[in-house]
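This week, think about what follows.
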Amino acid sequence: MAGLSEHLPEGIELLSVRHDFFGGSAQANMSPRPLAATYVLPVRQEYLDENLNAGIEHLLASESIKVQRTLDARHSRFKNIDVRGFIKSIVLKNETVVVECRITPAGSIRVEEILELLGLDMEKLAAPIRRADIQWQAAN
């Protein structure tokens, strides 16, 4: 951990390190793939209200959540995607919204889509969004 910390930019703190062995020589040559990511959204006090609570409850209760995703840099092509299956959990904890997202071969939900679905934007956040965790699995 100390060796890794030496190479991080100033202001970045390494909190923990865990090494997972995927076992077996055949698996040792395979690249791991992400399964889930956890994002922490620190919300300004004045936006921690019933609208945010209701939005979280609505998303979690929904069977389907459609978003329109831009497919190119010119914003000329779009695709409608159901992102509900990518949301594992959303928890309002203290002054933060903690979102755990599934990552599949078909994709995942984007952070900007999470913000939009919750009715949040950068002005409503008290600090930068932080990716708190990534769960990995050996590729098949």
User: Anything to note?
Assistant: The two ends are 28 Å apart (CA to CA). The chain has one domain: 29-138. The domain at 29-138 is CATH 3.30.70 (Alpha-Beta Plaits).
